[in-house]
User: Fold these one by one.
Assistant:
Number 1:
Amino acid sequence: MSTALPDCVDAERLAAHGGVLPGVISPARAVRVSELFRLPAPLVAELRFARDALGKIVVEGSVRGTIIAVCQRCLEPFENEIVGGIVHEIAPIGAVSDSSASVGAAENAQAFAVLALAEDEFILACPMIPLHPDGICVTPDERLKNTSGSRNPFDVLAALRQNGDT
């Protein structure tokens, strides 16, 4: 069984050793994803920590899982496999200028929130408008058209009028 992805890690230490951090995120811990989609199984994440040529900490990896979404074409639930790539650079707190401080680029590498990063990247990889692949589902309008056939909806009224005349 895989271990749970921790909430926070010391990115400095992991980057110094070229650390790899695999882990799972249970549906109960993936609160923001669960607000958007149903999760039938845990998310699986793998993050690699390293330093780039400038000495900045770089986090790369992936997060994957299955969501149950409602197709916006036919309004039926369906499973969708999601894989999100992660590429993130951690800027040291002292390296941020006053102009970029409002953007929030500085992060504390000793308490880096890997759970939030993995969840954010998974949400970004999810479709904004979930749809079945083309040709899989039938829209409610098409369903209505198929059940009514080529009948004219006023045929019933015409039949009533004819019955009233006789």
Number 2:
Amino acid sequence: MVKIEELLTSGENIIKKQSRVMYEYAGGPTGDLYLTNMRLIFLPKKRWALLSPGALLGKDIIISLQGIRLVSKGSFGSVKVQSDKDHRFFVKLWNTSSWVDTIQQTLSSTQRQGPPRQQPRFQQSYNPPPPPPPPTNVQHCGNCGRPLEFIHKYNRWYCRTCQKYA
């Protein structure tokens, strides 16, 4: 029988817990349901693990908060959680809304914070070279004779009157 303390990772905290939660259907396995700041964890009681070896009924159910797509209130006091699979946890009837609200609040605060960012070891900055200085001598258009304008972006002379590059 796994204890919750053995499953918690560094920085993971229990937000909500309830004992005697049924999983999936009436008469299904019962156990403890935990909501942490990272996961939703269902730990079935030892007797269920013995009654159904190798079956889903005897296994711990651990759902990453990042994998949860939808949380809603189901019938008969169930909390429906959609991730890679649909899960139903039957909590106490008067406690269903509280579970749904707490999971949704935890999901939204986790999404706002996002995954922990890794700080770069060094930061390389890139500064583009400065544009070349404008030419000092004035050029004139060979077509109309007016002064040309030097366009830095193309490094070419341009005649505004003729609207052509020289």
